[in-house]
Amino acid sequence: MTMRSSKMVKAPYELVKSPNHNGSLKLDGMSVIEFSFYTQGRKGAFFLQDHLLLFIKSGVYTVRFGDQQYTMRSNEMMFIHKSIGVEYEKAGEPDSDYILDYMMFFLNEKIVEEFLKFAGLKPIYPVNDVVPVTVFPINARIGSYIESLKPYFENPDEVKDGLVRVKLMELLFHLADSNDRLLHQMMQPMSKDRGSIAMIMEENFLNPVSLNDLAYLSGRSLATFKRDFQAIYNTPPLKWVRNRRLDKAKELLAATALSVTDVCYSTGFENIAHFSKVFKERFGLPPSEFRNKMS
């Protein structure tokens, strides 16, 4: 994956602040979001706090995770597992006036557990069976379901939570019928390897992760994660993350032409003033002066 030069936002909650946000249906926060663009290209990055189901009615949507790239076109959908950071690029098709029409569903563990109980299903926990991204076609039933939601976006604030919950249950029924492995994916963390703290930290220190996110990724409770981390690194996790980000920022300032602002966002900091302050505390100079000295 190439280094991003824009801020990675947390999804779904920060996405609704986007100036390009069209409309959403809400349930206990943000559960269902619809975006629709007339564009030939747009790039960005987000860190998923909930599972994401992404449906493309028309257009092209490309996601990069690690060194893998996944592309969806019209009438395809993608499942992206929670607690990972991805880069995306989206565009319309030339033969459809560059219209990009898609719908995003954010599904947290609570709604999946409600569905399993409601449907009388028991979760299955396969070993080594969790994949970060899956692309598959939209069948006729799911396509009809997507179309049935469009009227609700005309007056989204009038749609009650109970109805949104019912529609999410309906979506999960359709998914269970067409691809029951997705339900198993949703119920498991990305990593169950209890020796994987070092790998988890290296893969995620640039993402806007919380301690709860890191504990989840490592398959530990928060208390156990903190204890195990301290035993390995002899420092608190947040301090380690900050120092690792600063080391990366120093490397980028010395070796690339990225602006100080781009370096700030690329290394997981969300506030330029704070970034400059902690950079100076660690290296003795603010970022701009450090770069001038290096050049």
From TrEMBL:
Pfam families: ExsA_N, HTH_18. Transmembrane segments: none annotated. Keywords: DNA-binding, Transcription, Transcription regulation. Residues 195-293 form the HTH araC/xylS-type domain. InterPro entries: ExsA-like_N, Homeodomain-like_sf, HTH-like, HTH_AraC, HTH_AraC-typ_CS, Tscrpt_reg_AraC-type_HTH. The keyword Transcription regulation applies. GO terms for molecular function: DNA-binding transcription factor activity; sequence-specific DNA binding. This is Helix-turn-helix transcriptional regulator.
